[in-house]
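Input sequence (501 aa), recorded before submission:
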Amino acid sequence: MPWLLFAQPYDEAITGLRSLYFSDVGFTTTPAESPASTYWDRRIEVPLDVTQSLFAGSNAAGRSEISFGQITLGNEDGGLDALAGYDWDGRLVEVRYTAIARPVLADFAVVFSGTAERLVPGDEIAIEVRDLQILLDEPYQPARFLGTGGVEGPTEVKDRRKPRLMGVGRQFTPLLLNQASQVWCYGDGPVGGPLAVRDAGVALTAGADFATYAALIAAAIAGGNFGTCNALGLIRLGSAPTGVVTMDAEGGRPSGTVLRTFADIAMHVIDTATTLATAGFATGTVAAMNTTCPQVLGHWYDGSSDLTLRAMLDELAQSIGAFYGFDDARKIVLGRLDAPAVTPDFAFAERDLIELRPMPAERRLKSQIVRWGRRIRPLQDQEIAGAVTGALRQALIEEWRQERETSATVAAASLLAREETADSAFDVLGDALAEAQRRVALHGPRRGAFNAVVEFVAGMRPGQTVQITEARFGLSSGRRFRVMRVERRAADQEISLELWG
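Predicted structure, token format:
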């Protein structure tokens, strides 16, 4: 069946991108198509062998995973040897497919649009590909201190990444930027501002907010008080602290509103840390995710490590069971692992199944603890002033609070049912409890897992819902599953699916 490959490696000879067109059976566009009257060289031997997963590992939750795969071109005549002289890493690779025997270009659907990792030359040329999530392995915080003084810090912090707070952060220690003037930094731009500032656990009194660093430095601030420059993520103490400085604060406020939800934070940090922009998100995906997951989250980064953007997003996503990735139109999609949707994206009857094999499923979940409201810098008892007593003193020591949900029904039915504890970025008790309840409701019932092999179809991706109807395994009336893993085996005209639900 017809396959097309479009690639754009960088060619130093033309100081730009070189467009390359290949096919498996030979194909020429018409004069009215774009690109016009272009021959797609008959070179594809293995059009696509790529695997995409919703999460890393076998669990039905967890960290994101970059898709990987390979495309093979025939080169026994050496006609493609020049390809080894191009720069392929990070460049566009797009595979299109159609089941129509005599197609035009419009008949082809994009089944993979990602980036090349490298090209391996030879009589068979292998183009190793990854999906666009690899672009998220950039540093989460691209901004560094210049070390030139003022808001750019002293020479001691030159080239250190700037601190960054997103959402709501509790009891963290900002970075001391100017010891003589007691200026502390916790942001790299507009922030919502402090909710509390403490010295050895003793609350300091909030003062005025100043528009610039110069105005903050020039202000007269009494001992026991603090001033702010919310436009730059700075605070200034009225006197040197006697102990550990900690603060609670609302973080990034790039457009006048503090970013608190996973979707809003993801859109902002991807826009600022990568070549992708807000327009790179699939239409409606941010709004839909905000409706599904409106919880208040928090993430504090002190700038001392080389945290990647993907790792940062994973930390937030795991709190709410979210996933993120790219569709075949190269747009970012956001979602949450929930029970299979009522309306499936694809339905496969028994005649459509090349193979169907049951797989081990995780044990049922009877109890879920969600830890929330993390105090990022818990204090030791000796670090807290004697004037701080009672519940507040104990709260300053405890790193986490937690909420628990247990299903007596599951515990009675399944003697080896799981009990799990999950750390979260939640700031609100109700959000933590609701997530614990959601996870027990999702993973408490008996779930099935299958490997299904079907004929190649365009548009299949992890996170979608498929319905399987088969005479065996309790599937005779049809059952819906979430797609956890997709392995496209184009040479065999097959797709292998790992299903859960």
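Checked by second reader. The domain at 346-362+447-500 is CATH 2.30.300.10 (Phage tail proteins - horseshoe like beta roll fold).
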